[in-house]
């Protein structure tokens, strides 16, 4: 990936990714770079290509983010599972 | 029988008499355990209209077929009675080790009758039972009582259920501690125990009943031990690791259910609590998941890790719901509730009710004894908790629960008492989870979240592993419709089943694995249909108990506030439509075979073989 065409993001997820990602720990932030213009939906498809139906809430910078949201440099994205009881 | 002992212990505290019942096999087959044992005993033996805190009420501890079997999820027990908080059917469940120990000690249930003249505790060991003086234990905190009993019995393996001062002083939402850090919190069962002057039940047992096919249970245990990190979410931080998502979506109540969003919530999470104050996790019987936090804080308040740590309901009830962001204060509120044996949900929502009254000038510093009870005042929240446990000052009124307190305070405060049938709402807002709202409004115990289907789990369709009873299309959580009512009916019935199996909601087996487990333990052929019918039998009998006590469809209501949108956040344009709710309630009743007033039809009673209940 061309460094100039990519944006740095911080991702935190409470679900294991479909395939191992270096540095991933459940609920811990990790850094990732993705092409400029990547949307929340595209990021989701990238990490959760098998079990996207288990994702309940996606937030960007602490706010709910619809799938079409275009990610910006420095954004912090959180993935939460389908919300259960407590 | 396999999996059971075939014996109930009956203890009459008024007469000091202990006897053993041996229910017939078909009783076990029909009701399986837990709620089935509790509600049938209450309907057959407790007269209509009695005082829940009087000697005629009965307190029943009940196990299920899976209790005590050597696999994860089997450490729980149920406890039930006529509720002093609602006046209707009362029931609560807890994890830990006590339930499994009781099964190993030779009993499937304990029926407590009458009331003792002076404080006592019950000691059960390998099929034998005796009452012992508890005068020296009365007034002690939960952990102190536990260790004192272990010392007295000279056995550190003794398991206990105990009431604290909350139960002794008849706080109407008093809880029962199981092995110090697991609590049967809801519906005031600790107050019933206190009214009987029963401080504790200590148990030691050494024999697990034989299973019909132990290999299947051992395979399940091994499967869960291998897969629990994938199959459960709570092994790392317990519950509350996603509280930010709950706030973002409008699920977590803010300021007594007035608002839907509050800033700074990212600092309130199970992860932060575990990272900053955690001293490990602890578990229940035969379970590797270890989903219970242990928290230690030394200042400004002492939080003792022996009482565990706050889970989602507690974090939300004393946190955003009371406008409190101080994590140490939230942990201390949890510590106080457990020391004194008080339900954290009802306590949190009753205090948030009082805070709203204070903010509106309905309660003043004259009522509080001088302190400022505004939302966000953590010190006042903790002070009020102490007063509730000891029934001092304003705490004496609030120990009655938000519904009774509002009835005394008046001035429109009834609208801020967020309860159903007197039971305060859990931390799942029905404006987001509208199927859960339907469940809250119609369930016999009042607003219970454990046996309701969580709408937010079904937004993508059928849950993985849950297609044994039904398939459902993706349904938005805020939708209230016939298809949502069908989803709630099917999926909450499966959750009600756990109240008969007395099994854990947090270890995520598939429906097939649960069916296999019940069949393997009991040896009885088990179908999904039969399991669902067992759950339906329990729900209907609990409904009949309430009807007998004077409840009607008018009591199947949500707080008025739920028909208004939240003040901010994700759900500012969404509320529960009362007309739609009434329409879906009628549909829901009919799915259960009840008429439009919620009265079970004769046909359904006959079909469930519980027609006897029509004449109790």
Question: How would you characterize this protein structure?
Answer:
The complex is a heterodimer of chains A (86) and B (616). Helix content of chain A is 9%, strand content 33%. With 86 residues, chain A is mainly beta. A five-stranded mixed β-sheet of chain A has the order 2-1-5-3-4, with no helix packed on it. Chain A is built from one helix and five strands. The model of chain A has no long low-confidence stretch (mean pLDDT 90). Chain A has one domain: Ubiquitin-like (UB roll) (Roll). Chain B has 616 residues and is α+β, with helices and mostly antiparallel strands. Chain B folds into three domains: 8-204, Aldehyde Ferredoxin Oxidoreductase,  A, domain 1 (4-Layer Sandwich); 233-424, Aldehyde Ferredoxin Oxidoreductase Protein, subunit A, domain 2 (Orthogonal Bundle); 434-615, Aldehyde Ferredoxin Oxidoreductase Protein, subunit A, domain 3. In chain B, the strands form four sheets. Chain B has a six-stranded mixed β-sheet with strand order 2-1-6-3-4-5. In chain B, strands 8-7-12-9-10-11 form a six-stranded mixed β-sheet. In chain B, a hairpin with a 2-residue loop joins β7 (120-125) and β8 (128-133). The longest helix of chain B has 21 residues, at 528-548. Chain A binds chain B through residues 14, 16, 26-27, 53-54, 56-57, 59, 62-64, 78, 80-86, and chain B through 230, 233, 236-237, 239-242, 244-246, 248-249, 251, 266, 271, 311-313, 316, 427-428, 449-450, 454, 456-457, 459-461, 464, 505, 570.
């Amino acid at each position: 990936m061309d460094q100039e065409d990519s944006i740095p993001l911080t991702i935190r997820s409470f679900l294991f990714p479909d395939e191992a990602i270096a540095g991933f720990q459940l609920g811990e932030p990790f850094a990732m770079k993705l092409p400029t213009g990547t949307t929340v939906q595209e990021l989701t498809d990238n990490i959760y290509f098998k079990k996207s139906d288990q994702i309940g809430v996606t937030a960007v910078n602490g706010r709910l983010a619809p799938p079409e949201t275009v990610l910006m440099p420095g954004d912090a994205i959180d993935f939460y599972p389908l919300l259960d009881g407590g | 029988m396999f999996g059971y002992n075939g014996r109930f212990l009956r203890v009459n505290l008024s007469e000091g008499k202990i006897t053993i019942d041996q229910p017939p096999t078909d009783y076990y087959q029909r009701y399986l355990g837990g709620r089935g044992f509790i509600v049938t005993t209450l309907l057959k033996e407790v007269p209509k209209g009695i005082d829940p805190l009087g000697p005629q009420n009965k307190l029943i501890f009940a196990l299920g077929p899976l209790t005590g079997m050597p696999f994860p999820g089997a450490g729980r027990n149920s406890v039930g009675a006529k509720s002093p908080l609602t006046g209707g059917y009362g029931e609560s469940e807890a994890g830990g080790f006590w339930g499994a120990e009781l099964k190993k000690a030779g009993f499937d249930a304990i029926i407590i009758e009458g009331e003792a003249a002076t404080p006592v505790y019950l000691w059960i060991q390998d099929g034998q039972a005796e009452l012992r003086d508890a005068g020296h234990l009365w007034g002690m905190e939960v952990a102190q009582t536990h260790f004192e009993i272990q010392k007295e019995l000279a056995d550190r393996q003794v398991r206990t259920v105990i009431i604290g001062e909350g139960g002794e002083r008849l706080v109407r939402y008093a809880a029962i501690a199981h092995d110090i850090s697991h609590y049967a919190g809801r519906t005031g069962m600790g107050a019933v125990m206190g009214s009987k002057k029963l401080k504790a039940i200590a148990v030691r047992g050494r024999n697990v009943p034989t299973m019909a096919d132990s290999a299947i249970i051992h395979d399940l245990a091994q499967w869960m031990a291998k897969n629990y990190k994938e199959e459960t979410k709570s092994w790392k931080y317990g519950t509350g690791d996603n509280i930010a998502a709950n706030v973002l979506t409008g699920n977590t109540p803010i300021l007594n259910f007035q608002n839907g969003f509050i800033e700074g919530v990212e600092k309130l999470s199970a992860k932060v609590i575990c990272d900053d104050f955690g001293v490990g996790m602890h578990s229940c019987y035969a379970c590797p998941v270890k989903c219970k936090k242990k928290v230690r804080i030394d200042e400004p308040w002492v939080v003792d890790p022996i009482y565990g740590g706050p889970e989602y309901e507690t974090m939300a009830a004393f946190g955003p719901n009371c406008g409190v962001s101080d994590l140490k204060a939230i942990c201390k509120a949890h510590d106080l509730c457990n020391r004194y044996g008080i339900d954290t949900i009802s306590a949190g929502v009753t205090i948030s009710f009082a805070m709203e009254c204070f903010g509106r000038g309905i309660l003043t510093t004259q009522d509080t004894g001088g302190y400022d009870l505004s939302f966000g005042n953590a010190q006042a929240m903790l002070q009020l908790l102490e007063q509730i446990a000891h029934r001092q000052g304003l705490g004496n009124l609030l120990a009655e629960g938000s519904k009774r307190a509002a009835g005394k305070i008046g001035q429109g405060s009834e609208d801020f008492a967020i309860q159903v049938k007197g039971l305060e709402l859990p931390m799942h807002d029905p404006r987001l989870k509208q199927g859960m709202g339907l469940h809250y409004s119609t369930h016999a115990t009042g607003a219970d979240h454990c046996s309701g289907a969580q709408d937010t789990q079904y937004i993508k369709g059928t849950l993985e592993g849950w297609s044994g009873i039904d398939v459902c299309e993706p349904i938005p959580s805020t939708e209230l419709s016939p298809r949502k009512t069908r989803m709630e009916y099917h999926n909450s019935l499966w959750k009600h089943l756990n109240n008969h199996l007395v099994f854990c909601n947090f270890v995520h087996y598939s429906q097939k694995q649960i069916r296999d487990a019940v069949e393997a333990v009991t040896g009885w052929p088990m179908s999904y249909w039969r399991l669902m019918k067992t759950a339906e039998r329990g729900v209907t009998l609990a409904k009949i108990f309430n009807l007998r006590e004077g409840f009607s469809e008018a009591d199947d209501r949500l707080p008025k506030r739920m028909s208004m949108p939240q003040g901010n956040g994700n759900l500012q344009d969404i509320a529960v439509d009362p007309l739609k709710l009434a329409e879906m309630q009628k549909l829901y009743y009919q799915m259960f075979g009840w008429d439009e007033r919620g009265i079970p039809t004769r046909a359904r009673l006959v079909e469930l073989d519980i027609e006897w209940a029509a004449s109790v």
